Every structure is written in C-alpha cells, then in structure tokens.
Queue: 2 jobs
Job 1
Amino acid sequence: MDRKETTFKPIVIKANREAPHYWADMWRYRELFYFLTWRDIKVRYKQTAFGVAWAILQPLILMVVFSLFFGRVVGISSDGVPYPIFAYAGLLFWQFFSGSLSKASGSFVASQGILQKIYFPRLILPLSSTLVSLVDFAMAAVVFAGLMIYYQFVPTLLGILLVIPAILITVLTAAGLGTILATLNVKYRDVGHALPFFIQLLLFLTPVIYPVSLVPERFRWLLHLNPMTGVIDSIRASFLGLGDVNWGSLGTAFAISLFLFVFGYLYLRRFESEFADII
Amino acid sequence: MKPIIEVKNLSKVYNISHVRKPYHTLREDLIEVAKTPIRFLRGHRSDKEEFWALKDVSFDVKQGEVLGIIGRNGAGKSTLLKVLSRITEPTKGSAVLRGRVASLLEVGTGFHPELTGRDNIYLNGALLGMSRKEISRKFDEIVDFAEIEKFLDTPVKFYSSGMYVRLAFAVAAHLEPDILVIDEVLAVGDMQFQQKSLGKMEEISKGGRTVLFVSHNLSAISSLCSRAILLRDGRVASDGAVTLVIKEYMDSGVDTSYQAKPVKVLSKPRIAEVWLETIDGKKVTQLKSGDPFRLVYELDNPTMVPLEIAAAFFDGLRRPLWNFSHAMQGLNTLPTDRRLRVGLEFAPPQLTVSDLIVDLALGPKGGLPYIDHIVDGIRCQVIDNQEKLVLPRYPEWPILCPAIIDYKKVKE
C-alpha cells in the first residue's frame, strides 16, 4: 500500500457508508485478498493426506459411479458420446461450482474471529473462496484433457475460447449465491445445515447426469434459468461435438449470473455493518 | 494543521433482545413471523431494548499525540475502538481519520495453526494492513524480536503459548501506520516479555506516531500517554492531562459489583454478574478487614459446557495479593446449568490494604484459555484495615487462597 495515497484521503466514519468507498477499499485491500486466498490454498493441500489427489479423485470417482448407475443400469442418453466423458464434462464444472458455493457460504462464519477484530471489505471472503476452488478445477481439467485424448475428441478453437466465459459465469454464480447464503448464515446458522442438501438438490436441477435434450421442450426454459445449464451445455457442445453452441442459453446464463452477483453484493452491503455485532 | 483524528458526537446503540438464545435459526424466525405478522411488519418486537454503548462522544487528537482511554468495564472503551477501526458502524455522529490506521484489538488475529511461523507472519501482517514489501523488509526484525528463529518453519500449532504470543506481538509491534489503535495487548506473555513489549510501545509512541491506547493498566497509561479520556456509561466523563484523568478515575473508585453488558444473542458462556456479600448473604459495598466474605458469580452457560472459574485479588495499585483457581484447588468442573450461581467463601486474615481489586475469569475444563476474563471486575474499599500496623502483606504471588465453594441453579 502506498503511504501517500492513503494519507491524503481521510477515512470518514459515519452511519451508512456509501458504495464508492467500498470499491476503492476493495482495491486498497487487494493484497489481503491475495494472502487470504494463498492461505486457503496452502492449508487445503497441507491438511489432507492425498492433498492434490483429492481434486482429481473426486470428479473421477463420481464419473465412474455415474457411468455405472446412470449410464449402464438406467441407460440415460448421453447424446451419442461415451457416457463417462459426457458425465465428466458436466462434473468438471459442477464440482467447481458446488465447491465454490459451499466454501463461499461458510466463509463468514469460518472467519468470525477476524471479522470481529479487523476491518476489510467483507466481499473479499466469499470471492477468495471461489478462487481456491479454481485450483481444484484446473487440476480436474487436466484429467479432462486426458479423457479427451483417450476417447479421441478434438476440441474446436471456439470450445477452448468458451472456457473463459464458462469459468466467469460459474464464478459469478457461485460467488453471488455464496455471498447471499454466507450473509444469511451469519444470522441464521441453520443455513449451514441446509446447504449440503440444497447443493445435492441443485445437482439434479442441472444437466450433469442427463443431457438437456432429455427434458421436454416446454420445460427447457426452466432449466435454463440455472446458469450452470448454459455453462455445461455449451462446453459439451463445443468439446464433444454435440452440435452448435446455444448462444441464447449462454447469454441468459451470463445475465443471470451477473444478476446473482450484484444481488449478493447489495444484500451483503445491507448487513455488513452489523456483522461484528451479531456473529 | 487539522487534527489527525476528529470524533464528533459519535453514538452507537445496540438493540438487545431479552430472549436468551445462542443464535437464531431461520425456522424460529419464520414461525415467529407466522405467529405475529403485524408486529413483525411494524419492525419492532416487544422484548427489545435499546442500549447506548456510546453517546455523543467527541474529541480531537493531534498528530503525534498518545491518548489513553480509560474507564470501567462496559463504559464503552471497546465499542469506541471498534467503531474507530471500522469493524462496526456508528449509529450517529462521525469520525475523520487523516492517515493510515492499524488497529490491534487482539494479538494473533487470523493466525492459522497449520501454517508455519513464516507464513503466519505474512498472513497476520497483511491482516494488520502491511504490504508484502513492508513485511519482507521487516521480516528479520520481527523474527529477532519474537525470538523464534529456530521454529520459523514449524507450524504454529506446535508452538508453546509463550512463543505464539511473542510472535503475534512481534508482528504487531512492527506496524508503521500513522494512527495506531491498541486494546489491552500488553497483558500477554511472561513478565520479561511484557517489559520488552512495554519498551517497544514507548519507542512507538515517542516515534511521532499517533496512538490510541486502551488499558486497565494505569501505570502503563500514565507512563505512555500524555493525555487521557475517561469514559463513563458511553460518554466522555473527563478529558485532559493523564495524571488528572487517572486521579478522577481512581476517586470515582468503588464499583462493588459487576454486571455484564446486555448482548443481542448469547452464543457462549460468560460471567453475567458478580458481587460481594457477607456470610449471611447480604450484598456489601465495602469489606471489613478480618471478616470472611463471599464472592458470588452468576454464570450464563447457553451451550451447557463444563466450566471452571478463577479470581485474582490485587491491591489498589494492582499489586497481586492472592489467587483462587478452580482447577488448582482440585475441584471438579461446575454443574452445567443455563444459569448458575457460584459462591466462593474466603476467610482471609487481617487485610493490610485499603482497596481491593478483583479480576474475574471463566474457563473451560482445565481452566485455560479463558472464555471470559474481566480485568478490574470489582473494586472495593476495605475498612478497619490494618495498613498502619505494618503487618506482613500476603506472601508472594501467586498464592492460592482456598475457598469454600457452593452452587445453586438459578431459574430463568
């Protein structure tokens, strides 16, 4: 932090702080953001026996289980591509999303000690949780590349470029929803209990196990209200050659994810000032 | 030149609910809304009460001034620091801080047990507002001060509590903000380290930095600060030269019972009330030398965990007299009740002091770390004291003074 920069901008404390300061503060506290993320990544891979292996094993095991049950036993359609890679493409983003969401939702309660003693823009916490999951995602993505080679799929250039908006939408959705739930969790601790159940439910409302084409045409718009539908659908289309990318769906996903993020931010801002008093 | 800190009519109100619950659940609130929709819509519930932790507090601090803030427990000192550190928002009024602020309301905030000493220095430094460059520049100095070179790459969960505290203080002591806000951090570590910390504090305060310093340690306040503010019931009761303000504080003297601040929700055990009484249960405001007396605690235990209590007795200048500790006396943990009254009966011989100060503590099984610790919880005068007789004082600290203990469940 540059000393001069802050010395000449007096800090004004009064009731109902305004928003512009908030984003200035987000920038001012960027190093803290970096350190908190760094801490979580470090601790995450330190505390576990398998460390890095977890990031790869989780989606891989789920893929095997899903392939056996839903692919073989139930015989769910996978739009003509081998079920394992079909499921993995979905799981790759689903795991990223659900991991970020659950970490972000617990982030305030987990850091209550810091929240009571130190000021910083609280939005940093759910955001940094999302970034931690990005590391897991990167490793799981390597496995995806391996599967692509094994099943002999060649991604289109468009597909590779699509990864960026796909990650962005996932981050915005998880951080937005996570911020709302984390804020609620400060006041109502039962949110923490309900969350795993909620995430499980979401899995079935997202086309991870099944393709979008399995849903009857007239209900499909409902599925597209879930931003993760647009993400997974377009990644599958472009990486596994399942037709054209549905731009409408991807656009909707982006709009909804942005809305969730802005809503989460506003909701947090409304209660942030009381955190230290009730946590 | 404008003052570096300008506080104007700063006020903070807390709404307190009288329902004793560790925390809300969404389910309960929904049920409540269903039961009393009209009351909910009007936005207030009948069991709420306002509590002004700060009321119209105004003062200025000049660049380089070291300001002490004193006052009884619950007078608003901590709330003031919290507002100035931006952890909580004021309800009314404003404060302008012209400079970089670092607040130290606790040592070792954000320390992660799994990370090494080295990692924690960076993490804690960042939390306290240091940049990476700044930390790297001061790194060796910090390690030197904390005396932990050998354990730099050991996770701090393997540190002794002394090492932990030394490291935490060392990081904090090397902050270089324009304004430093400190809450009672000197009460850490062993005597030797406390001396070292005090020395460091002196160095900081002489280095032209502006410091706000809250402490119960009046001798530390008087040696570090030039000016002090006395808070009473959330208001500024006195503001001026440190010697005068301390004198006023001492004269306002007796505070023969302790009552915890009301809180919105009760999430962990705490000391709710403490008072002194005679053997036959009459509350007293002064003690008669030679008479046995009872120190009575009322404890809230919302989580119903096993608890232990401790009490430390000092004379008026906070020179240690004697000590009572649940665990050291070989007593079992207290019965778990939501609210429990514990009486300690002391029968000391003639007291040779004119004032008695009692620190109160509540801990888990084994005693430490404290869940609740009230420094200066009770102050009272001793009458008919034998000060003039030059009797030997109580032997060297720490001495355990046996007490007869009794319990009673309190109905809610």
Job 2
Amino acid sequence: MEQFVLASGTIVAGVFGCVAWFWGSNMALDAVYPARGAGAGQNMRRAAAIRPWLFLGPAILLLGAYLVYPVLNSAWRALHNADGSNWVGMGNYRWLLADGKFHESLGNNMLWLVTVPALSTLFGLIAAQLTDRIRWGNVAKSMIFMPMAISFVGAGVIWKFIYDFRGEGLEQIGLLNAAVVYFGGSPQTWLVTPLWNSFLLMAVLVWIQTGFAMVILSAALRGIPEETIEAAILDGANPWQVFLRIKVPQIWGTIAVVWTTITITVLKVFDIVFVMTNGEWGTQVLANLMYNWMFRGAPDYGRGSAIAIVIMLLVTPIMVWNIRNARREMR
Amino acid sequence: MEGHAGTRSSLVWAVNLAAALMVVLWTVPTFGLLTTSLRDRDQIAVSGWWKAPFRSQQTDFVRAGTAPDQIAEGAIWVIAGNVLDKGEELLAWGTNSRDPGANAPGATVALPDDRTLSVAADGAYRLTSPTAFTETRGMRIFVTTISSPRFTTENFTRVVSSEGLGQAFLNTMTVTIPATIIPILIAAFAAYALAWMEFPGRALLIAAVVGLLVVPLQLALIPLLRLHNDIGLGKGYMGIWLAHTGFGLPLAIYLLRNYMVGLPREIIESARVDGASDFQIFRRIILPLSFPALASFAIFQFLWVWNDLLVATVFLGNTREQLVMTGVLREQMGSRGGDWEILAASAFVSIAVPLIVFFAMQKYLVRGLLAGSVKGG
C-alpha cells in the first residue's frame, strides 16, 4: 500500500512539478522582460533568447546527468584500478587484450553481429512481402510482430523450454529434442553444446526482431512507385525478378536503417545470455562479461568500465552514421 | 498475364502457405508456454505440451503405506490405500522395477514372507501379512496408468500467492507507471523548443539527442549507482524512476520533435501573429495535435520499462520484496530450472500486460517505429 502512495505521489508531484517549472519560469521571464512599455522590442528579443533554455532545461539536465556524465565517468574509471583509487593508465585495456574470456566475448559478439541482423532483416523482408499479398495479412503481421512485446527474460523462458533436454529414452518435452527424436536422432543438451548454443540464443533475438524488420520494410515496400513494378511485369518479369531486381534495390536505404538498428540491439545484448546460459559453455558476450566484472564476486569497476567503453566504441560508427543522416534530413 | 491464370493461382497458394508457416513458427513458442502454464504439473513432466489434449500413458511408482498405517483384520495385518490420482485409469501394475506392468488390475500376487498384494481396477490396493508390519518406508508399487488431459489454473494461483509474483507484479507497476509518464512532459517541452524555436546551438542539440539514442545503457550503471549513493538517493524507486526517465528521454525527444516539425507551419505562425506566447502555442495547439506521437512514445517506454531486467537489477534492491517480475523470473530460472509449471505460469503473468497493451495499441506502436527509423534513411 505504502508503495502505491509513493508511486501516485510521484506521478502527481512529477507532473505538477514539471508544469509548475515550465509555467512558472515562463511567467517569471515575462515579468522580468515585459513585452510592453519602453524597450519592449529589446525585452522581447531577450525573452526569446532565454525561453528555449527554459523549455530545454530539465531535459538537458537529465540527459547530462544520466547519459553524458556516465560516459565520461566510465572512461575515467576505465583508466583506474578496481575501486577507482589508483591510476592504472591503459592497464585495464592491456588486461582485456590478454584475457581469454574477453576474446571469447568479442568473438561471440561478432558472430551475433553477423548472424542476427542478417537473419532478422531477411525474415522480416520475406514476412513483409508475403503478408502484403494475402487477405489476412494484418492478422499475420500482428502474430509475427507480437514477440516485440515480450521481454527478453520472458523470451528466455519460452525458448529454454523449447531447448529442454530429457535423458535418452525418456519422453522429450522440449520441442526441438522431440523433433530430433521423431526424425530418428538422439536428444542433445543444446544449451551446453558450444557453438550450437550461441546460435540457439541468437534464434531468440531473431524471433523478437523479425517483427520490427517486417513492419518497417513493409511500409517501405508499399512506398515503391507502382509504375516501376507494372513496367517490369509488362516486360515479362516473373514475381521473383520483380521482388529481387525491382523492389529490393529501391528499399536499400530502409534495409540499411533496419540493419543498423538491429545491430545496436545486438551489441548491447545482455538479458538473453544472462538468463539462459549466463555466458557459460562458450556463450559469453561483452555486456554479460561486463556485468560479471561489475556486480559478481569482488567487483572490479576499472575492468568493467573498460569493457563498457569497448561496447561504446563498437556502437560509435553507427552513432556517427545516424547523426549524419539526421542532419541531412533536416536540410 | 491473364493467360497464366493457373500458375498465378498456384502462386497465391504458395504465398498463403508460406505466410501461414511463418505465422505458425512465430507463434508456436509462445503458445507452447501458454499451454504448459495451464497443464497439470505431473503431466507437464511426462508428455510434450503438444500432446496436452490427448490421453497420456505413463509408468511410475507409488509407495504403499508404512507400519503406522496398518490395521488388524482378525489374524492378519492389512495396509490399504489407493495408487491412482484423480483422472487416472489403471492399465497394469507390478512390484518389480524390471517388470513394472506384470499384473493386470484386480490380480493378487504372493510376496515373500507369506504376504500378498492386490490392486483393484479402481486403484485400491491391499497389502496383507500374517505378522505385523515393521517397515518405516513403504514398498514400491509400479503402476502403468492412462490419464485424461487435465487443465488447471492452479499454477497461476500458486505463483501469484506463494512464489512472490503477486508482490513483484505490484513492484513492476510501481516502477513502470511513473517512469512512463514523467519523461513525456519533459520531452514534449524540449521537442517543441527543438522543432519550433530559433536559437543558437539548436542543430548541435538535435545531433546530440540522435547520438545519445544509441549510448549503451551498461555504461551508465556504475557511475549512476555511485551518483545516487553520493546524493543520498541510494537504491530505491526514486532512483529507478529517474534512471528510466533519463534513459528514455533521447527517444522521446527524437520521436516528438520529428512529429512536431511536421505539423503545419501556418497554424503556428497565425497563432503567433494573434499574439499567442510560445507557452500558449505549446499547450493549446502543439500538445493536442501531437497526441499520436505522445501515445507512440508512451507505449515504447511502457514496454521497455516493464520488460527491463538490467536497470531494475542494479537500481532496485534484490531481496524478495523488492524484485520486479523479470527479476523473479530470472531467479526462478536459476533455482527452479525444471519446474516448468512455475516458470511457464510466471512468464505468462509477466508478459500478459505487455501483450494486452501491444494488441490494443499496435497502431501507435507501428507509427512510432516508422517515425523513429524510416526517417533516418
């Protein structure tokens, strides 16, 4: 009960506080620089110069404290020892370069990076093309899109059940092993079999991200000018040719956006590995490795931060690309 | 083209079939878990969920009663009971693990020491002996049974009451609702300034917002936890609300600005000419018109916060009373790995609300996705 009072209190206080700030600061500004009397013109100019910062103030403060400051602070911590008391220079990074677990994580992240965006985009493209051509397309879209609403942890439970293993001879209750046995194979302990397990974890993320790719690509496909398609059909192109030669080349830009968006998700992937294998049996990834160094056993914030900075560096090219796109958009 | 009517209709068939296959592949995992959460726990362990609607046969053993259960009937001692659970039918039974189906229902077999055992078709067994029983551990009776499908909501009652998921549900709500509402207002004002006000540094700020969109959350954990401790906030709801607000702002500002920029310039210009202040324009014109974008962001933020594990693990405590649902699920995956009835029911409780929100407000979600990504291309 107490927490509800607290929560509703926060909502009311938060909303009221925001309104009070925006309204009150605007009133104050108008009172200090009234838009009338002598010097009204100058006052209006001054007020107009200050007002944007009143509107932006809370957002800038929060963004600064919760995103910009942590990046700088992490960069600083990465140059220090476990508890931040001593300067170690590049020591943590040198340690990373020599650490086997880091190599494994980096390798796995690269594997994820190649596999997940490619498969998600491919399946998304196929799903978009298929569902746009059938009468029950919207229902089908909803169903393929649905995993987007499911948490990574929930998805972890769902898929761990599919990969469940029972000893040979027992009735398999996991779908994958049941299928394997049905076709005459012997059941496998999927999640502890190196390499297989990484790909099976990737399947979970592909399952989630395909809907996202489908929604965006479907909108792009519908935006293709009809004339180009009609012209191709008149020239005798078959459906495959229309799809691969006419449609796909026209949506390359969108495909790139989908690809990079999923790439960012992949670089940060944590929950799925954390709950399904916790990075054991060769499935470690950077985000989970970082979590281990920061919160497990004796925390080492220096090493943890160094790993976080590596993730940041991997994301940076996409960040730059996004900013350049956004700036071009604004012109 | 019309000449190819035959190949065209077969193509239509192929497309329908392929789409159906994809839909099945994408829904089966969730459906399997839902089915499992509604099944009886004994049945989950012995047959796949796809066999849920059918009768299943299984071989297992039950233990007969022990010395305290015996009663004297004239000269002999008797232990009686029943080997069947509700809904089970007896096919065969036995006393030896090497031949668990040796005897038919109703048969009586002789055991060493002049004892006898009979098991009737209804599962009632009678173990007799000329001398008093001294066992402290009952003998094993192997039974082969066939059971009709049993569906139950018991798993749900159990996880909500005794597994702590009820409390976790409340905690998740407590985290999610303020963390969804607070960023909206802050972002809306900032987005308006970035869309419709002229000031130096605006382009730079927009670029910064786009850049901050992709900053990995992991980076923020330790510095913020330290910051919260230093300013006396510690671990708790206030900290997690602020954290989610901060992490959600870039997307909120980006989405809302993109939307507000597209609103018709004439409306805003004419309001300015009529002497409306920026504050009035924002409140009377921009805010109501931006409702679709506000709704899009609200859904994103709601789903994101509700489904989050990492931020909650770090910024809230980890005792039983403080866990959110994703935290409970994670803990159960570690400690009750094989108890699928618990895991399935818990997972379903935790994904039910997002699924409802998803299906109810899909339109806004799709709009938000399109505004957030396609523009960048």
